Structure formats: C-alpha cells, structure tokens
Amino acid sequence: MATVTSKTLEGALGAKLRLNFGSTVEEATDAQMMKACALVLRDMMAIREVETKQMVRREEKRQVHYMSLEFLMGRSLMKNAYNLGLLPQLRQALENLGFRAADIFELEPDAALGNGGLGRLAACYLDSMTTLEIPATGYSICYELGLFRQKIIEGQQVELPDNWKDLGDAWLMPKPQETEEVHFGGNIREFWADGYHHVVHENYQTVLAIPCDMEIAGYETRHTNTLRLWDAKSPSPVDMSLFSQGEYLKATEAHAMAEVIAKVLYPEDKHIEGKSLRLKQQYFFVSATVQSVARRHLETYGTLKNFHEKNVFQVNDTHPALVIPELMRLLIDDAGLSWDEAWYITTHSVAYTNHTVLSEALERWPQDLIQRNLPRIWQVLVEISNRWQKKVEDFYHDSTKTEDMAIIWGGQVRMANLCIAGGMAVNGVSGLHSGILKKDLFRNAYGMEPWKFQNVTNGIDHRRWLSEINPGLDRLIRDLAGGDEYLLHPTALSRLDDYADDAEVLQRLSEIKRKNKEAFADYARRTQDVVLNPDAIFDVQVKRLHEYKRQLLNALHIITLYQQLQDDPGRSMQPQTFLFGAKAAPGYAVAKRIIHLINSLADQINHDPICKDKLQVVFLENYRVSLAEQLIPASEVSQQISTAGKEASGTGNMKFMMNGALTVGTLDGANVEMHDLLGDENMFLFGLHADEVAELKARGYLPQRLYARDPILRRALDQLKTGFRDGVSYEDLFARLVTGSNCAADEYLLLADFAAYCAAEKRMVETYANPAEWNRMSLHNIARSGMFAADRAVAEYADHIWHVGHR
Ligand code: GL4
C-alpha cells in the first residue's frame, strides 16, 4: 500500500465529509471532523481486518475469544492513529484543513463500557493481543449508555447518563448479516424418536443479537482484531395482533423487553445485584458469542469435534461463566455430540481469570432465576453440578469440601465453582492474589486439581499509558534507551538505569514532570474550574471509591496535616496538593459519604488562608480514562493504599510508576511485585502485610483501643464528628471506623495502619526535599516498569494458557 501522507489524509477527510455529512471542509463542525477522522481510519482498519481474517482461516490458527461484560476503551482516535503510525500525519492534515488537532481529539467521548480496572484491563489486552499478532476477538455488549457521568453538586455525587454513541458510534460497524438469535424463557419438551433422545426448547422469547464491530489496530503490524459488541433488538417492532386489538402498550412490550438488555452498563464494581436483567445481559452476550464462534468454526472445518483445538474462550471474571453450559447445550442439542464428547471440548476451551476475592463480588445466582429465564441452561447446569459433586465426593470424602466446591447449593448457582469445574485454567492477576486463591478462596479445588491454577500478573498498554500520553518522557526514553525499541520491547526501559547518576538526565526528567504538571493545571482550570499550584507535590489517589481502597485513610491523614497547621500556622512545609478522583456505585451509600467528606474537607482547606501555598485538596469530577491520561503524566505521588490482601492487582499503580510517580503503598496486589523490582529504597511502603491482616482479624481486632491510645488519630477521627465549615457531620463514618454500625468496626483496618501511613507520607515529603534523590528514584521506577507492560502479560496467557503463537 502506498504510504499515507498528510496530503492523502486531507483528501480522504474531505471526501468523507462530503459523502457522509454533505459538508465541505469549510462548513464542517469539529464534531463532524472528528467523525470523519474516525471513519477514515476505520476504513483502513477494515481492509486490514479482512486480510487478517483470511490469513487466520488459511493458516487454521487457534483463535482467542476474550469475553468480558466490560471494555473500558476510552478514546480511540489518537490511539488508532498512533498504532497505524499516522499520528503526525493526521495532526498535520487537521491543521492544514484549518482545525486544531487537540480540539478534535478532545471532542471524542470516552467509550466507557466498563467500571474500572477489570474493564480497562480488557481494553489494554486487546491492544497487546493485536500487536502480538494473536488472532483474537473481544466480545461484550453494545451498551447504549456507558458508565454514568459524575457531577459533584454541593459536594455530593450526582449521576448523569452517558450517551457516548452520539459521536462514539463512528467506530462501530454494524454487521446485521451476522445476527444471532438468543432465546429466553419458555419450556423444555423431551421425547424419544428415531432411537434418539430429543430436547426441544419451545415457547421462548427471541432477542436478536446484532454485532457492532469495533476494529482494533496493532502497533507496527497489519494484524487487526475486532471488538464485537452485541446490540439487542426485538425481532418484531410490535405485536401486530395485540396492536390491532387496540392494546398498544402491550403490543410494544416484547420490543421494549428485548432492547432494554443493551440499554445500560451496570455501574457496580465488585457488587452483585442478582437482578434478572443482569442475568439476561450475561446470557445474551454469551449465547450470541458461542453461536457465532461455532458458526464460523463449522464454516471452516465442517465439524465441531476439533472446536477446542481452534478456539479458546477467556472469561474475564465469572460474568461470562454461562459460556460453559451454553457451549455444552450447543454441542449436545444442536451438534448432536454426546455429553462426554461435549464436556471434553468445553473443558479444553474455557479459561477463567478471577479478579477479586471480595465475597460481595462473588457471583451466585438464585436458581429460580435461571430456571425461569434459561430452562435448558438450567438442565445442563444441574447435570454439570451433579457430576462435579460426585467427582469431589470421590476425591475427598468430606462433606464440608463437597459443600464448599458445589456448583448448585442452597438454592444458588455459584459461578466461580462453575468456572473452576468447566475450565482448563484458573488464574489470579498478581502473585499475591493467585497465592490467596490457592491457599484460601479456592483451596479445595486447588487440592484436587492443582495443575489448573496459574498466575498472570496484570499489565497495561504502555504505548497508550506512556508513549502516547507523555510525549516528553517518550522523547527522553528514545534518546536514552535505544530509540523506539521499548515500544515493542518494554524491558528496554531498564537502560534508563545507566543514567541514575547523570545530573543532566535527572534534570531533564524533572523538567518533563514540571511541564506535565503545568499542562495538567491548565487542563484542570479549563475543565474543572480549579487553580492548582504547580509548586506543590501532586499527590494523587484516583480509582473507584471503595472502602477497601481506603480513600478515607488518605483523608484522615490530610485532616492530621491540617490540624498540625492549625496548631502552628507559621509552620513552614513543603506545599502539597492532594488530588482525588473516584466514582461511587450509585447504590453504595458509604462510598458516596466518603466523596462528600473529601469535598467538605477540600472546601475547608481551600478556603482557610493558613493553608494558602501549603495545603490544597481537590476532588476531580468525573474521573475517567481521558482524565487519567492527562493526570498521570503530571503525578508525583501515587497512592496505592488498599488493605493488604484485598486489591487483586491494581493497574493504576503500574501507570503511575511508568510515568515516574513514586508510590506510597501497602504490600498488596501488584505493589508486591513493584517492591520486588524496586526494593524498600525506591518506594514508600507501609502497613500490615496480608498475613498480618488475617492474623489480626483472627485474634480479634479492636479499633477502639487504637482510638483511645493514639491522640493524633483520635483528633483526626473526632474531626469527622465535628465536620467542617459546611456544617455536615460525618458521625456515620466515625461510627463505622470506631464503634461499628451494623457491622464490625473498621473492617479495612484504617486505624491499624494510620500511624504507619503518616510516617510513610512523612518520609515521602522528606525525600521530595532532595530533588536529585527524588529524580533518581523516579527514573528508576520508570526503568523497572517494563515488566508491567500488557505485552508481557498477554504473552504469558498465550504461552501458558491459550497455547497460541505470537510475535
Ligand atoms: C479488579 C481488581 O479490583 C483490580 O485490583 C484488578 O487490577 C482488576 C483487573 O484485574 O480487576 N477486579 C474487579 S471486580 N474490578 C477490578 O478492577
């Protein structure tokens, strides 16, 4: 193909504007131009995608099907242009046509089809799977509304709908010719005829699953993969017989029922609701996916008997677990295989990743919900469950273990146990987390089938999260570490270590950070209406709001700093700006109270003249991928302070490290591996370790004692009761930490770690006073971060779980 220049792009953009919007370049709005850019790049990727598919078919390659209810893609324009190697040309073309490239990029809405880490991980892995030239497809739902937009009104979170498709749908390519039918409800009729046992599902409701494909470009490859998002449609717009009887509302009921499936992403991160609509979403996307994969497989091979040799389903947490009974159903009912044949194929084509040990996030479905909505799947589940239970009994002869490992028990269906039984591999997402799965959560399953259990420590798309969003640092790395080699070989970053004592390099690093801070301050002024002090340490905690992540611990420490300043207003101190960003699940009342508290605290501190140029607290509204992309390059301190044993991995921690921020953190999730690489001297570690947390809890943890004993802690906690100048009291949060309210006090051990946390922050501030030392540590963090590239993680999946080749 001829090389694409800015001139070619100008021509293509002009043509798109004329053809799709009936507009000239001069008339086009920024929004139209953004869409035109998307369409031009989409065309290029579509051509490559066809080539990739042909190659995969020709070479009969094994394919990966990455199933996830969440893909937190964020923006795609800059990313796709980057991967296609066209970013400079596109920028130039836009400027030549009289547009500001930055404005066009800024206009693109985030595709927020996910809640947080789990969904963003899926997005990063799509990039790496494509770059590593693995034939892979992502599958999810084409939600009409992504994760809600957050507004802060009078200090509190208000949720607004996220209509991302207005502009974001430019990336989607509907493929109605590949529609699948998904069946809900109805009944099962079984009979013998022609010497066969027949199972017929009848009186069901049909929902059509229509693929909307999003092309995924890889970096420096023509290999192109697809994210297939299923849209839900009713087969009939209205029920004509009801309509003609005048029952207008009823006539549209089935229609509404079907389309509500793809209406909205569930906004709970780590909390299951057990709602029938959620179950329908799960089965809808699973069934459509399994059918479409099987259909393509049959077209190529004419049989499903070798299905497992050519396909692997990676299930992202248990949300797609119904892939197991659905594949069984299809192999038995539709393809006529025996149970044993079908089970062999299924258990050799499904792999499960666990992403959390929090019990409120472990999916258990009430069995009557499944019976009612998915009668045939229920039958298959009962059979799987019975056989599995027998296997467990025969192995252990221990009824408590039978109960623990059961799939159907006490009227519930346990999805994790289903995945373990029906999967060929189970993995956690960091060394610590995978260890907890083996020793604790899944210990009995591990005892019976240890070979299934693996670890794949998470990784991030370093091309996006470093090179694309931090061009200053990218340039420094290219200058020092072998040009662009690190983009495909992220461990080349370690060459930066050669410059640990090079004053000039450290100076350059610090200037890059300074510029990024100023750029972020500018962004924050424009978009958040806050004035940041770029001379202050940018100390950042951005992630979902959850008690185990302990944003409240961070707030308590800030209260303490403020109280020290009140005692001694003339105290000279290193200015610190604490930045928070977090969405709370709409139904998670405590999380919302913590957001309110942070805003009350910010209001107090930012209005108190004694804090001027010393302390600042900012709650950034509507934290999302595109905000993270601005903030992370500007961050100096990364707060990763979850209770040890609770954060499965974290991936924000990796993004900060890669951009040279230093971590204040606990030994939790992937922080442990960061610590292995960095040592005590290159991060600010504090707090109880996971085993100490468990011991303390077993011994009987008494936060009241700490409250009574530690006057600094007590004073900070008492401030929660008093509140701040807005007059809101946080007595409820005080109670949750100290006295307990409807639960044991301080479930996440904030009080136990408080003193150690304050000490770690103090060490951090003291280190900051020595810029040479700080910059050396920062450089070292970047140098060691190559291990956290998603390319490494995906290569491990490919080698040890999927058994597919890669670049
Ligand atoms: C999560 C974990 O909480 C997080 O630690 C991890 O990095 C992420 C990806 O593996 O998965 N689990 C759930 S649920 N949401 C997450 O973000």
From TrEMBL:
One biological process term in Gene Ontology: glycogen catabolic process
Signal peptide span: none
The reaction(s) this protein catalyses: [(1->4)-alpha-D-glucosyl](n) + phosphate = [(1->4)-alpha-D-glucosyl](n-1) + alpha-D-glucose 1-phosphate
Entry keyword DNA damage: no
Keywords: Carbohydrate metabolism, Glycogen metabolism, Glycosyltransferase, Pyridoxal phosphate, Transferase
GO MF: glycogen phosphorylase activity; pyridoxal phosphate binding
Residues with the N6-(pyridoxal phosphate)lysine modification: 655
Cellular-component GO terms for this entry: cytoplasm
Domain of life: Bacteria
UniProt-listed Gene3D superfamilies: Glycogen Phosphorylase B (3.40.50.2000)
Keyword Glycosyltransferase: yes
EC id: 2.4.1.1
Cofactor(s) annotated in UniProt: pyridoxal 5'-phosphate
Pfam families from the UniProt entry: Phosphorylase
Function: Allosteric enzyme that catalyzes the rate-limiting step in glycogen catabolism, the phosphorolytic cleavage of glycogen to produce glucose-1-phosphate, and plays a central role in maintaining cellular and organismal glucose homeostasis. Phosphorylase is an important allosteric enzyme in carbohydrate metabolism. Enzymes from different sources differ in their regulatory mechanisms and in their natural substrates. However, all known phosphorylases share catalytic and structural properties.
Similarity comment text for this entry: Belongs to the glycogen phosphorylase family.
Protein name: Alpha-1,4 glucan phosphorylase
Originating organism: Oscillibacter hominis
